What we know:
Layout: E1 5-10, H1 14-24, E2 29-35, H2 39-49, E3 53-54, H3 57-64, E4 68-71, H4 78-87, E5 91-94, H5 102-115, E6 119-121, H6 129-139, E7 146-154, H7 167-170, H8 174-190, E8 193-200, E9 212-219, E10 224-230, E11 239-245, E12 248-253, E13 257-261, E14 268-270, H9 276-291, H10 301-320, E15 324-325, H11 326-336
Parallel strand pairs: 1-2, 1-4, 2-3, 4-5, 5-6, 7-10
Antiparallel strand pairs: 7-11, 8-9, 8-15, 9-10, 11-12, 12-13, 13-14
Helix pairs in contact: 1-9, 4-5, 5-10, 8-10, 10-11
Amino acid sequence: MPVARRLGLVGAGSIGQTYIEAAHADPNVRLVGIADQRSDAAVAAAESAGCPAFHHVQDLIEDASPEGLIICTPPVSHFEIAKTALGAGIAVLCEKPLCLRIEDARNLRTLAAENGVLFTMASKFRYVDDVIQAKAILSSDSLGELILAENTFTARVQMGNRWNTDPSISGGGVIIDNGTHSVDILRYLLGPIDEVLAVEGKRLQSGDVEDSALLVLCTEAGIDARIELSWSYHKPDEHYVSLYGTRGTLSVGWARSRYKRHQDKSFTEFGSGYNKLSAIGSQIRNFCAAIHGDEPMLICSDDAVASVEVIDAAYASLHSGRRVNVRVNSAQVMDRAGGQGESG
């Protein structure tokens, strides 16, 4: 029987609870410690997981000796927590968005490489079977040359006083929050993103961040894409990704997915839809296997950094009102930060 991998978790909020549930369901994963600055939350989560609670990340690392650390805290804290873990030679799986600044994301990638440890961003949609099957269908050329891709993540969510609407903590609004998933899905299916134009929708909720936005992108392969994001309105569409090619169309849905070549009389259904717990469980298993080199991560450190670059370019576009080249923007950001201008 395989030895259970020792993982630590930082952040006992709602997403942290999902990771605890997913880890508990996997006999090859052992949570050895949970840390949260809110001591009561850490204790409650640790009791449910059957492991010690810690107030500080450093104590978790020193006392519990995890092989890998899962970071589920608000984005502003990601850099320092990941830096501490990577510096101690511990692999890191960090929830999205990876970092608020490009230079921080690149510095973490460099630190991980120097210490020879795994560093990756959580991207649950890469672990949804329907999305994986959609990529395989694209690769088979069943749809022909891809012309357009669309992604929609819209829902009525009262954000209230949640940290997601405090830019000093979150880095922005719906673009950096849900949009990070959107960007990674499109990069996974279509390849690197070259340009982005971002337009903010009508702001319906109080706060200092955008609650609706439209992103228009073009990939390095010349494929156009559109991303629609909102916390303030819901589009009753059963599919969240649609792909249009010269030979057919494909849609990835919440409950089921389907594709149809132009010569087909009807759609062919595939997959079983989206299951958050299953996707995160698969992500944890991939992380554990990758720590010991048994298999590669579905999202590597370069993919993680690239997500930060695209989101930063989206905000640069939002503020300038112009289409922004991702590579040029990330180079300019690094120049202003006194770093190197290469793109990841």
